[in-house]
# Entry
Amino acid sequence: MFIYQTIRINTMKEISEKEFSDEVLNSGRVVLDFFSTECPPCEALASKFEDLSKIYGSDIKFLKIYRQQNRELAEKMGVKSSPTLLFFKDGKEIGERLTGGVKRSDIIHNLDLMLPDERQQEIKAQIKPSVSEFDVIILGAGPGGLTAGLYLCQSKVNTVLVDIALPGGQVSTTHEVSNYPGFIEPQAGYLLSHNMSEQTKMCGTVYKFAVDITKVDLVNKEIVIDEYETIRAKKIVIATGTTPNTTGASGEKALKGKGISYCATCDAKYFDNKEVVVIGGGNSAVEESDFISRFASKVTIVHQFDKFTANKKAQEKIFSNPKMNIIFNSEPRSFDKDGDKMVTEVENLIDGKRIKLVSDGVFIFIGMRPNIELFKDKLELDQWGYIKSDEDMRTSISDIYAIGDVISKKYRQITTAVADGTIAAMAIAKELN
# Structure
């Protein structure tokens, strides 16, 4: 046991480009982390990387390399973002490169690829479950969750923020935000969410990001992350937000935020005098198309049925709008990019014929779904599946609160999520103090 601990203390170290061949290519099993400074995803990875080095360190060498000071090697290796984890066995890269918000489970999967099955089981048997306790758990680190964390921290309430991704929610992938109070000039979405996150973190709120949420027990006020860490609290705030429904057409995922948008309020203004394609025919699609037409020179709506399902008043506005071009009985089959233009291939569901629509951007409005899979059968929901909450953001379960886009309400914006987080935090702080 003493020998094992001595080995693992020395297994994680930082190297330079000059040491790469000896330390990586000629060293058997190695995992290498290309990291940068002032890099939130790198910070989120650091504790997982160090913890796993203590568990796997007797079998696999854990190394870090500062990307900015070793750019030539990074470029040679095709490393284009931080952090990036590379896995080597006997000088050859194996497994999948991991980058961005790296999850512990994905690291373990790649580490296990280097080891015999028997050794994998021996190592996992050494992992001891841990338990931590807080006053409040916030599930979700979008604007609502971050605001709740800030207010609770300032009220001296011991709080932990847990998210399956990195902080910011959908705001972090929004091109620019021009309607957030306090900023004269439009703010890049990633920067606004970064500033929110840094403010909450500096206050002292504990962060656990890019984790796998294994279990949520609302009655006993505890969650399990990464299969081994149990977090308990007196109260839980659900701020898990929503996810736009997707078409499933090829190219959609790759072009999200790069020509495909799910928010007209966020992005319509960037298509002034340009042509846009909208997918959908319900209330959101029709109402947002009307809004987009204030900016765009032409809006082509693609809908799968032979008539809209939106309310009649909204339809009347669309049909009387000269900027509108409507294609019924059709669905998108692929999204592609040709220079600065978006190319949407659309199939007619009646005759099977396909056409290509060339535009400057695509908006998809085929509904949103609340992220409540782990606890949807436990809470009172509205008819659309959103969580019901009262004026203090309390839900149908005692000491469980819900805020932001995941709750039943009329408008879903950054500012409304921030307001919800403020209200919940103040109500919780008053009860706990």
